[in-house]
Amino acid sequence: MTKSKTNPNAPTLTGAEILWATLVGEGVTDVFGYPGGAILPAYDALRKFPIHHVLVRHEQGAVHMADGYARASGKVGVAIATSGPGATNLVTGIATAMLDSIPMVCITGQVSSKVLGTDAFQEIDITGITLPITKHNFVATRAEDVAPMIREAFQIARSGRPGPVLVDITKDAQQATCVFDFEAAVPPEYRPHPMLHAESADMAKAISLMRGSKRPVILAGHGIIQAEAEAEVQAFAERHKIPVATTLLGLGGFPASHPLALGMMGMHGESWVNNAIQQSDLLLAFGMRFDDRVTGNLATYAPNAKKIHIEIDPSEINKNVKVDVALIGDLKQVLNTMAPLIDQAGEPRQVDVTKEWREEIRAMKGDASVRDIINLPDNGHLYAAHVINDIWQEAKAAGRLENTIIATDVGQHQMWEAQYFRHEATRSLVTSGGLGTMGFALPAAIGAKIACPEKDVWVIAGDGGFQMTASELSTIVQEDIHINIAVINNGFLGMVRQWQEAFYDKNYACSPILSPDFVKLADAHGIPGAHVTERSQVLPTVTKARTGASAFLINFSVEKEDGVYPMIAPGAALHEMVRRPNPLIETSED
Amino acid sequence: MLHTFIALVDNKPGVLTRIASLFRRLNINIASLTVGETEREEVSRMTIVCDAPENAAHRIRASLYKLEITRDVDEVGRSEAVIRELALIKVEAGPPASSSSSRTHLFELAEVFRARIVDLAPESLMLEMTGSASKIEGLIQVLVESGYKILEVSRTGRMAMRRGKHTSRVMKALGSKAHEDESPLDPDALPPSERIPNQFAEHDA
């Protein structure tokens, strides 16, 4: 495309300028990156464009920030790095985005096309390396390639099941010039997956399964948020009075305070949720993929339940769990099409058919609350679950709950957050589910805050994960943004320790971990902080952090050996949960 | 079980790697893979034979379609397609003087199997055979059992094309349903799996 057929006034620009101009055309306002030799021409051109660039301290931070930005806003996140080590540092973050289906475009510099394949300085085959972890990737070797490839990258990233796309731009492509026409660079029309299949025969079957069901459960996953179908799901659940369980990534998609909300299901889901699923006669899976964390042992999963699966990715159908009806398409569209069909299918049921079922579940909840750590006296110990619940209470009392975003790291604290921070608003939880990437929280929170500056953003991280990307504290200060950081510090890699306790005879091999004084560390970066060692200090310190003028770090010294319960051991069925050992809490400190 | 897929893909560098990478990720062994040009310049045609459980076909097709470079994926069975491969087989066959009968015998075998002799050298002979995989394997087996020493075998892997005029599924929107037991000899008959396979039909009560 050297001449613009449509626009005689199209300017001649360098590839580097075209890169930014195309991003502006795609609606990008913020990017996260780190310069280097092969991407230098692009950085030189940046000043001519109204794009806010966040300089990170490690490229992994850049890609996690783009990820958090996308999760919080629904827009495509953009990360930029140079060739060689800059590009390889993105790999973990790209894989994180791939497994959680996050729309993202990563742009990497590349050595000049003349020396490709010669092991040049900082040359790496990043497109080869990221083949399995991107939806697609591109190499632009000429200035003419830049605009169409970037536009197509955005289209791929946000279409169908979203995911990360990488565009590798050689240095000479950035330096060469050509005519730039944003409109002419439009990608070919998006071809939806040919196996989308939600025909009326299947809908009729789904509806008849629903009519025959007295013990249904809706399983709501990340898809309900990505399809922007939260309202449709809620209306559907209320119309048919069906309780709703969510996956980790579905939290917030269905308000936790809703009478039909069950909470998170799966390996660390509450007992009533998992028991309800195992005893149900119909599962309606909306935008979820029956991940192994959610199902437990597949052979004994929901043995008496028929299954309806509404899913946009055909390759997920029958992958793990064999279903009775699959409606393959966009969740919002499918629900909107189905709703009137259900009403037409017969007179509305006069009797509240699921009433008994809901009462059974309520009784299960009541039984479980005896063991719930939230209801137990702390006897002077500081429990992570209490800390997290207090952060939730504080936000709620201040009327800020709907405007709070929590970014968690990975581990025990992540599970306690899912259990005890009751998300009401969609896109209020930013967490790495599929890959489970430690070090995710801090940069993802930064991305979320840049996306949603008016919201209160909390990092909830363990002492292990926090150390992995702690250097991004400087990014917070350089960007002058207010992020609240809660480090749940127990001196251990907690989840590893819990598994070693349960399955490896308490052989705590390499799980006790020495950390710096995080308050001093924050101070060295220019961020104030405080230590909390007692329950009574929690709420006032949380309020101080949230209402203060700047970022703030709180180091919570919590109980060293505490377990997340319930827990489902590998190979165990969803109802074979290990429960909290004893109504009276016993720990190694007693 | 062996599945045979015909994939029409973009004719661009790196496409072969993407497909191969996908099968590796799915942990499915590729028995053979051939790729070549088609009647359209921008489209390549791949015939992939892979070893996977019977019910994996849906997932493989769905995963192939997830790749941006894939335009069409068709799975073919033996009745609905013509399947061929080409093999070159080099057989040890000594100088005419000492084993004239063995050379003659080889010529006869070639004729029976309709293989061609494409190279005659003092101590060896090369056969070229085009046919179904079972025929090629049959020839090799007979050669071995007749006591010949096979020096080299090179096979292209299966290539397949649907019978009848609807050979290219890129010319789509055919929509009409086909019956399972339709005669394969009818050139205009639509192959039974012309429709997108609906796995859920299996467990209708």
Overall strand count of chain A = 22
Helix content of chain B: 10-25%
Mean pLDDT of chain A: 94
Overall, the morphology of chain A is: globular
Which structural category do the helix and sheet elements of chain B fall into?
A: alpha+beta
Brief descriptors of the model:
heterodimer; A: 590 residues; alpha/beta; six-stranded parallel sheet; 23 helices; 22 strands; 37% helix; globular; disordered C terminus; B: 205 residues; alpha+beta; four-stranded antiparallel sheet; 4 helices; 23% helix; elongated
Brief digest:
The complex is a heterodimer of chains A (590) and B (205). Chain A is of the alpha/beta class and 590 residues long.
How would you sum up this structure, described in words?
The complex is a heterodimer of chains A (590) and B (205). Chain A is of the alpha/beta class. Chain A starts with 11 loop residues before the first strand and ends in a 12-residue tail after the last strand. Chain B has 205 residues and is of the alpha+beta class. Helix content of chain B is 23%, strand content 34%. Chain B has 4 helices and 9 strands. In chain B, strands 5, 6, 7, 8 and 9 form a 5-stranded antiparallel sheet that branches. In chain B, a hairpin with a 5-residue loop joins strand 2 and strand 3. The longest helix of chain B has 14 residues, at 100-113. The two termini of chain B are 27 Å apart. The A-B interface holds A 127-128, 131-132, 135-136, 156, 161, 193-195, 197, 202, 313-315, 317-319, 323-326 and B 14, 17-18, 21, 25, 55, 58-59, 61-63, 65-69, 72, 196, 198-200, 203.
List the topology elements:
The complex is a heterodimer of chains A (590) and B (205).
Chain A: E1 12-14, H1 15-25, E2 30-33, H2 40-45, E3 52-55, H3 59-73, E4 77-81, H4 85-88, H5 91-99, E5 104-110, H6 126-129, E6 136-140, H7 143-158, E7 164-170, H8 171-175, E8 177-179, H9 200-211, E9 216-220, H10 222-226, H11 230-240, E10 244-246, E11 261-264, H12 271-279, E12 282-286, H13 292-295, E13 306-311, E14 325-328, H14 331-344, H15 355-369, H16 384-397, E15 404-408, H17 412-420, E16 429-430, H18 441-451, E17 456-462, H19 463-468, H20 473-479, E18 484-489, H21 494-503, H22 518-525, E19 529-532, H23 535-547, E20 552-557, E21 567-568, E22 577-578
Parallel strand pairs in A: 2-3, 2-4, 4-5, 5-7, 6-7, 9-10, 9-12, 10-11, 12-13, 13-14, 15-16, 15-17, 17-18, 18-20, 19-20
Antiparallel strand pairs in A: 1-8, 21-22
Helix pairs in contact in A: 1-7, 3-5, 3-18, 12-15, 16-17, 16-23
Chain B: E1 2-10, H1 15-25, E2 29-37, E3 43-51, H2 57-66, E4 70-76, E5 81-92, H3 100-113, E6 116-121, E7 124-131, H4 133-145, E8 150-155, E9 159-162
Antiparallel strand pairs in B: 1-3, 1-4, 2-3, 5-7, 5-8, 5-9, 6-7
